[in-house]
Amino acid sequence: MAIDWELYLLPYEQAVQEIKVKLKNIRNELRKRKEHAPIEFVTVRVKSISSIYAKANRLQFPIDENIAWEIRDIAGVRVICQFLDDINAVVQMIRERNDMRIYQEKDYVSKPKESGYRGYHLTVEYPLITARGQVTIPVEIQIRTLGMNFWATIEHSLNYKYEGIIPSNIRQRLIEAAKASYTLDSEMNNIRDEIKEAQVKFTQKEEVPMESLISLMDLSEYALNPEERSETTSSRRDENRRNGE
Ligand SMILES: Nc1nc2c(ncn2[C@@H]2O[C@H](COP(=O)(O)OP(=O)(O)OP(=O)(O)O)[C@@H](O)[C@H]2O)c(=O)[nH]1
Ligand SMILES: Nc1ncnc2c1ncn2[C@@H]1O[C@H](COP(=O)(O)OP(=O)(O)OP(=O)(O)O)[C@@H](O)[C@H]1O
């Protein structure tokens, strides 16, 4: 029987939205408590139907009701952190939650992929209450630093541009860039206590939330996700409005 995609994808949309709210609430609570929040921002997406078909064909899975358990990243959450240590903190935080169960972990932080890609991936089972009762949804959670996310976003666009066949000289430069980015992440991690202290002081003095700091630094512009970009842009618009601009 043909899949009704609109109905099929509904719980995946609900799952990513619920997880996003939960993770953002943790970040906001920690900021209110003037504690360092290991979560900088969270983006989510549900895989498009064409991308589901492309992946199923590539991996030779039949398209049926079971496809979400074969592909496993139809529901995707991405958690972006400031520091390398924050990645472990987020993983630990998820391990301790009883509203989701980790069933696969991939550590591409200590073991990067051949491309140079780094990130920590969890696949979790997320119980969801729907109009028809409880269902379990597989969700992929990718945890990256700002630097790793920057690199992956650029590499993803180049892959798109070159239709998956990036010329070898550019590939090599990407590998070098990934190494440089990791060196920066490691160095920032080493001086993180100084930075965290400065950020807390700055926040207390100016009462400027970290979101505005990031938007002032224009980090949001370097890519990320259209949804997150528009969120930041609208918070900047609100700020300008407050300042009478
Ligand atoms: N930009 C970029 N993203 C990557 C790369 N490798 C993995 N990713 C991200 O991580 C996701 C899947 O990573 P893996 O955990 O390696 O999954 P996999 O089963 O080995 O690979 P897939 O079959 O593509 O899902 C991808 O969908 C991307 O979002 C990479 O080299 N470059
Ligand atoms: N877990 C995730 N959380 C948030 N965004 C994601 C996640 N995984 C992928 N994305 C983003 O979603 C967009 C569409 O990706 P898409 O699902 O088509 O392919 P992919 O997951 O990157 O690759 P593949 O199909 O090979 O697994 C891309 O911008 C990608 O970076």
Automatic annotation (TrEMBL):
EC number: 2.7.6.5
Organism: Brevibacillus fulvus
Pathway: Purine metabolism; ppGpp biosynthesis; ppGpp from GTP: step 1/2
Gene3D superfamilies linked: Beta Polymerase, domain 2, Nucleotidyltransferase
Protein origin, superkingdom: Bacteria
Protein name: GTP pyrophosphokinase
Record flagged with keyword Transferase: yes
Region spans: Disordered: 224-245
Keyword annotations: Transferase
Keyword field contains Glycosyltransferase: no
GO biological process, one term: guanosine tetraphosphate metabolic process
Any Pfam family the entry gives: RelA_SpoT
Residues covered by the RelA/SpoT domain: 44-166
Chain intervals with Basic and acidic residues compositional bias: 226-245
GO molecular function: GTP diphosphokinase activity
